[in-house]
């Protein structure tokens, strides 16, 4: 129908004429209450924002000569972080002569990845950056 007819029809029903696809030939329009439409759209967006969760990155710092009990304690903290849906950054800082043995840090990182294998997946494998070795763990997807 012509735009003038559509506009008259919308005004007679006390509604708005809204262009859905203005680039189409002919343009596609819809008769609706635009104020109500915007209100409901804002309400849906607010509900979606309320339900979303921001994933934080928590850090666990290990040392090159960490003992077994200390290691287990750090792993338990990492499990809590993973359980609450956060990502975990595992880091080892090399001090002084420790820089001569990065392979020892890699073994600790691998041990950490194996200990967390049941609840977390390695997002970024262990990598030496300057004096720090970093590895990122993310919660396993529940599919």
Walk me through the structure.
It is a single chain. This protein has 143 residues and is of the alpha+beta class. The chain folds into 2 domains: 49 residues, Roll (Ubiquitin-like (UB roll)), CATH 3.10.20.80; 83 residues, Translation Initiation Factor IF3 (2-Layer Sandwich), CATH 3.30.110.10. Helix content is 41%, strand content 29%. It is built from 4 helices and 6 strands; from the N terminus they run αββαβαβαββ. Strands 3-4-6-5 form a 4-stranded mixed beta sheet, covered by helices on one side. It has a two-stranded antiparallel sheet with strand order 1-2. A hairpin with a 2-residue loop joins strand 5 and strand 6. It is rod-shaped, with a radius of gyration of 28 Å. The two termini are 49 Å apart. The mean pLDDT is 90.
Question: What labels describe this entry?
Answer:
143 residues; alpha+beta; Ubiquitin-like (UB roll); Translation Initiation Factor IF3; 2 domains; 4-stranded mixed β-sheet; 4 helices; rod-shaped
Task: Describe the structure concisely for a colleague.
The chain is α+β, with helices and mostly antiparallel strands and 143 residues long. It is built from 4 helices and 6 strands; from the N terminus they run H-E-E-H-E-H-E-H-E-E. Strands 3-4-6-5 form a 4-stranded mixed sheet, with helices on one face.
């Amino acid at each position: 129908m012509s735009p003038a007819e559509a506009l008259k029809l919308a005004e007679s029903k006390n509604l708005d004429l809204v262009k859905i696809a203005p680039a189409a030939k002919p343009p596609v329009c819809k008769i609706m209450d635009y104020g109500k439409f915007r209100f409901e759209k804002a309400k849906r967006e607010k509900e979606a924002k309320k339900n979303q969760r921001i994933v934080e990155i928590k850090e666990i710092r290990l040392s090159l000569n960490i003992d077994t009990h200390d290691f287990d304690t750090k792993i338990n903290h990492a499990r809590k972080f993973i359980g609450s849906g956060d990502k975990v950054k595992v880091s080892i800082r090399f001090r002084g002569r420790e820089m001569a043995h990065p392979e020892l840090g890699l073994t600790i990182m691998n041990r950490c990845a194996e200990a967390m294998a049941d609840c977390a997946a390695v997002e970024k494998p262990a990598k030496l950056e300057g004096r720090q070795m970093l590895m990122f763990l993310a919660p396993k997807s529940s599919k």
